UniProtKB/TrEMBL annotation:
Source organism: Bucco capensis
Predominant location: secreted
Name of the protein: MGF factor
Listed GO MF terms: cytokine activity; granulocyte colony-stimulating factor receptor binding; growth factor activity
Domain of life of the native organism: Eukaryota
UniProt feature coiled coil, ranges: none
Location of this chain's protein in the cell: Secreted
Length: 203
């Protein structure tokens, strides 16, 4: 259990910023070889890849439908919107605790699950894709919660603006741009998690 907890701490500590080997100058730990933990890594690696693909599909649909394709062209509009990246600061503090980091990742997934309602309003003709993405996001969050329980990690809840009600948009165009940045932020969140899972799974 002790070794598993150390490995989990490494996984969680790497989820926000790459490169992994530069994090606080700490060397990578060897995986314990525990089959259950390896199964968790590989299963959720594939799950994250699927979710990333669905987010990318919705990004392409927004591009095709509303000609919202390049983030740099929308940065000025973003200043007027209440769209934020799900916080993960507990994953990079020097007083790192696995419970805190893992809980924030779980809560971030829940926040994106809620935010996808704004995308559903924009793309009602693709409701099935958005609803599948919401379901998969909820399931990934549940997987993380279950892993916390299996490893005996305490649940920690951190208040965050992203868990509140969806922002109110002053115009339909602002709603479109808001949906664009919700997906862009979610994609970055998933890419960071995916790289960390893949790196550990290859050790």
């Amino acid at each position: 259990m002790c070794c598993l907890t150390r490995v989990l701490s490494l996984l969680l500590g790497t989820l926000l910023w790459a490169p992994w080997w530069a994090l606080h100058g700490a060397p990578l730990l060897e995986l314990s070889g525990d089959q259950d933990f390896q199964l968790f890594l590989h299963k959720n690696l594939e799950f994250t890849r699927k979710i990333k693909g669905d987010v990318a599909s919705l990004q392409r649909l927004l591009c095709d439908t509303f000609q919202l394709c390049k983030e740099e062209e929308l940065l000025l509009v973003r200043q007027h919107l209440s769209i934020t990246q799900a916080p993960l600061e507990q994953c990079q503090s020097r007083g790192f605790r696995a419970e805190a980091c893992f809980s924030q990742i779980r809560d971030g997934l829940r926040a994106y699950h809620s935010s996808l309602a704004a995308v559903l309003e924009l793309l009602p003709g693709h409701a099935a894709l958005v609803e599948t993405l919401q379901l998969d996001t909820a399931n990934l969050s549940s997987n993380i919660q279950q892993q916390m329980e299996d490893l005996g990690l305490a649940t920690v809840t951190y208040p965050t603006e992203s868990q509140g009600p969806l922002p109110t948009f002053s115009s339909h165009f602002h709603q479109q741009v808001g949906g664009f940045f919700i997906l862009a932020n979610f994609q970055r969140f998933l890419e960071t998690a995916y790289r960390a899972l893949r790196h550990l799974a290859r050790l």
